[in-house]
Amino acid sequence: MAVDEVAQDNPLQAVVLCDVFTQRFAPLTLDRPRCLMPVCNVPLIEWTLESLAAAGVHEVFFLATWHVPQIRAYLEKHHPQLFRAPGSRAPAVRATSLTRISLIAVPEARSVGDTMRELDAHQVIKSDFVLMHGDSLGTMDIGAVVRAHKERRQADRNAIMTICTMPAPPSSEAKRPGDLSVFVLTPTTSQLMHYAAVPAVPRVSLLPLPLELFEQARTELDVRNDLVDCGVDICSIDVPPLFTENFDYQSLRREFVQGILTSDLLEAKIFVHVAPPGDATSTSAGEPFSVVSRGVLGMPPYGAGYMLRVSDPARYDAASRDVLAGWTYPNTPRLGMPDGAKYTSAPGPRYIGEQVTMASTALLGRRSLLGAHARLHEGAQVHDSVLGESVNIGADSIIRNSYLWRGVVVGRHCCIEQCILGEGVQILDHVHLQRGTVVGDGCVIGPNVKLAPSTRVSMHAFRASEDDEEERTEGAEEDSALGQASRGYMWPPLGATPAADGDESDDEEVDELEHAANARLFAMGADRSVVVWDDAVSELSSIDADSDADVLSDDESDESDESSPTSPSAYGSMSLTLSGGHESQTYGEKLESEERLREFQHEAQASLERAFEEKHAPENAAIELKTLRMASNVPPGEVRKVVITFVLHHCSVDQPRETAALLDHWGPLIREVAHDDQIEALAVMQSFCAVHLSHTKLFVPLLTKVYNDEIVSDEAILAWWRHPSSRQLVLESQSPSQAQQVVLELRKRAEPVLRHILEDSEDEDEDEE
């Protein structure tokens, strides 16, 4: 009741930053703001408003430097009752909390810090507020995080910010080299003690930590390099004035957050919310603040859900795939998108919009979405792609792992792979666009050309910087490479022009994250082999403040450069080796986690027994298991193990028909629990058949069936084959050495299935040619 009363007295406000002041999406963002880019045919601004409305936000302020007229026109057209009449409560999104949308132009801003200073100057923020980047997408329960932040603020007025993060395994596309972070937290309160951005090049293998951390914390520290920054912060009203007081704050994380953490004058504190689901490595992962502050464990998690910044083409691809896979539930093509678009769904998943035309010989592959009025001509193929409204694909053309926006026209015998094509682009006959290609709105390419990987094409001539007004002299030559009937200018690939190519001076530092070595990793299908990762490094994610003092080396620190903020003289020589992100737990937390896991396994087993006996629908069983997992706060991997082992226990090689029927019915449940880590799911199947010798003959038929029924993808099977888990026992066994030998034998037996998949892939490649 108290929270509701506070919400009524101070309606929750949100600030959306429309500009990020990078060129990662250029040339797509030359003609439109990033917040209006479509993800699965829904503009990012709609995803933003849906998330904020679900969080109970009443008033939203969009702050924009560029493309202000476009944003204003969009809001006037699609949300007139909120944008034109502030007092109106007529809903423009499905949730009804929003009552007002405002657009504040900040034309002089050239950084996030400038934008925040403009926000402070307008004096529109009345209380704690949600600060969100305009490229964040998801359905995280932000409202619950707001309530936890306010509760924390009541106990400690120095708590000025809560950063929202999401755990991600090393294999996740959301967590990739080039733009990663390390968060050093106190395990019991989730207070942020240290923050570091980690570029891919130059590789950072050692993280210096200031010795003051151990004097302040006097306890263990959680070092998390498995967290993805969601681009959502809960801020106190004190945050905007702090930007005004310090003009050195330009970026939100590397300067503002770092400045707060290292300030000798401010007593401000920053906290981190780690959204469940995921491995709960401490009470900072999903426990309510009120529970954490009293040291009581076992309460249901809060602030669950998915949230990811669409910060570059590679993450655009990752976010789109996650939407199709259902991570943004309930905002999915099957249940309904934020803009209200309707799709017919089919297994795969495949989604087809209204009034779509497909020739009888056209093929719509898995993980694909066709917007309204799209058309596929004879022999056209679409795989792992999203096509916008009124997209037209010519005869015998193949679209793979690509995103075609509204009104794109592709001619005959074309091949589009891992590309983003802007609105109204025309691809003429016999054109091949390779991985990483980005084509801006309105361009024409072809006919009869093949562009190199990571090519960028725009209707605007390339300029090395915004200040470069000189006309290009080589434009005609480059235009001809696009085809005889082409329109547009060819740009260098993302990262091919180093940031340092501009006018260098001692006063202007190059942003290491936007430098060429990192920028090339932001492209779709980027070659990550240039990044060297050492899997053999030690894994250390928790430090005891009472550690032996001889890990320090004062003699070495005296010889270092005292002026360097990362030098040993500033930080001592305490350092951590960064690895793939395995988390640690305190002893008490381990006991608590083990107890929760035992309870979950028992209850999940009973739930599945009832589902089998009463022949429940797989989707109902999945909902009950999800409820149990959320209540127990166990990792998703435990659900996979319980479901897969339970189903396989009911399978028998001696009863092939009954086993096939059982897998036909319960296959969708396995697909549901396996979708976020199919490699682990296959490893569990393999180990189960190795541990239970009566099931060894079942493995190859099982592998074939889960492939044919699209329970797991062909890419996942190939990845499993290459992954170490295909050679290791991942389940407990009374005879582990014997089971380990069987694991290797089953891997060998699976070779014909792998050959079949590879041959199918080669046949598809030949069809493309």
From TrEMBL:
Comp. bias regions, Polar residues: 570-587
Protein name as it appears in the record: Translation initiation factor eIF2B subunit epsilon
Primary localization class, coarse: cytoplasm
This protein's GO CC annotations: cytosol; eukaryotic translation initiation factor 2B complex
Domain spans labelled W2: 594-768
Gene3D superfamilies according to UniProt: 1.25.40.180, Hexapeptide repeat proteins, Spore Coat Polysaccharide Biosynthesis Protein SpsA, Chain A
Subunit architecture: Component of the translation initiation factor 2B (eIF2B) complex which is a heterodecamer of two sets of five different subunits: alpha, beta, gamma, delta and epsilon. Subunits alpha, beta and delta comprise a regulatory subcomplex and subunits epsilon and gamma comprise a catalytic subcomplex. Within the complex, the hexameric regulatory complex resides at the center, with the two heterodimeric catalytic subcomplexes bound on opposite sides.
Region named Disordered: 462-511, 543-588
A GO molecular-function descriptor: translation initiation factor activity
Transmembrane annotation, as ranges: none
